[in-house]
Amino acid sequence: MTTEDLNPFHIAQRQLDDAARYLPELEPGLFEFLKQPDKVIVVEFPISTTSGGVRNFVGYRAVHNRSRGPGKGGIRFHPDVTLDEVRALASWMTWKCAVVGIPFGGAKGGVVCDPKQLSERDLAHIVRRFVSELGDNIGPYTDIPAPDVGTNARTMAMVFDTYEMMHRGQNNLGVVTGKPIHIGGSLGRDKATARGGLFVARRALERGLLDGVDDLRGLTVAIQGFGNSGGHAATLFAEDGARIVALSDSRGGVFNADGIDPAAAHEHKRATGALDGLAGTESITNQELLSLDCDVLIPAALENVITSGNAADVKARLVIELANGPTTPGADAILSGKGVVVLPDILANAGGVTVSYYEWVQNNKNEQWDEEDVNTRLERIMTRATDGVLEKQEQINGSVDALTAQRKELGRDGDPLQPVDLRTAAFIVAVERVAQVTLERGIWP
Ligand code: NAD
């Protein structure tokens, strides 16, 4: 059993604290501002249910920071949604948008509900009522939602439609991204999170991230979560030559050391609603999947799955975080001690928000770009962001002694700084960018 603090917002703040130690000149008051969300909204609302009763739901929206542009972040429908989870996810969005250099801030929303237990009609009522409760707190230039766990393109169509009903006579397509293609969605958005992760992995391997490995060909991969992020990752990583040895969803996992055909897995999941029972595979638990003997582990479900309680069992050499917050700080330390490299969420899964940005640009210009065009742009951004984080790690690790001395001079604690992992390097890149913009704009009034 882990005794770690698993509160996601505490974890997000701790990650920021870790990064700030390498930025001795960061004004302490500004840093405190960056640690807190700008705005948090809590709404409680009823719906009349299909069965004739009334049920009440709680929803949240947090905007963490808008220095670099409008708030941007998904809406999650899950029974375990909490305000602190939403706060954490909103702050990770701020850092993610800054790491890839797109002009958005960070936001996130969620409704405490279990979409699997709700009728289509009840879900539609929840979406519409939630959006109307948020009112003008969301908007094409203020805060722009997107899909997350438990929501999808259909949900986003309803978000758009509800907002449109309240704001007729103007182009409202940019109020939400991840929409269906025929309602202003972008080609390539559905696979963007996974494709972005692929581009990050390709670039990092090409630059020597793992000794003796230049690309994904022949690497064995285990993926936890088979939704938008994990499902597409299985297909795309297999197309790039990797061997997918394990997959899982909330009901459990499947394993075949010789490789699983992603197309067969998608078909089985579509037909039966689960991965379990896929022909030619044996059943494994989600815990077993995390400790499989494989080269690459891709958490693509929820937070806190790799903790100080199980990190020592991870046998993969590389973890690619398509989920947000899957690895706790305690686990990071253990993985780094074992030489396991983690491509962190705020870099590895930023492809989704990047193509959401392209969707927003297309909506504002009334254009539709080819999928090839979207993917080419995505590759350029993800490759550049990967280079930026790898170079920041190199730069920081080459100057830890000088930074330690500088901390002492400035009256900060003089504890010797240690070399950073890629997560801290990515946070440093992001915090520098957000802090720079905040100071250049000036603090109002
Ligand atoms: P999704 O709802 O499409 O899929 C989630 C998957 O996780 C499903 O297969 C579900 O069965 C599985 N799952 C749920 N609980 C699980 C558990 N306890 N153990 C194992 N599997 C479980 O969601 P998604 O959009 O793919 O999001 C997954 C992760 O990726 C989240 O952390 C999300 O924040 C992150 N993410 C998503 C996007 C995006 O564009 N959708 C972008 C960036 C990051």
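qc> The pocket of nicotinamide-adenine-dinucleotide is lined by residues 147-150, 193, 224-230, 248-250, 286, 300-302, 322-324, 349, 352 (CB under 6 Å).
qc> done
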